[in-house]
Amino acid sequence: MFSGVFKEAKIDIDLESFVHSFRPDIMEAVYAWAKGSKFYEIMEIACVFEGSMIRAIRRMEEVLQQLIVVAKNP
Questions:
Q1: pTM here?
Q2: 3-class DSSP state for residue 22?
């Protein structure tokens, strides 16, 4: 799926390293945070440093903000 999109956009990317850059180990914790869990509660779920969790959540928020802009201005 991704490789076709990247080829169409003429983006040269190592698909394997791109896929391995995802952090499935923190998905449950981020989902819990999105549902309103306290930070200390999500840190009990995830086995990562606090800074890594904050960085992941902030990056996700940035992507969502960009998607909002794109959706409003097709």
A1: 0.66
A2: coil
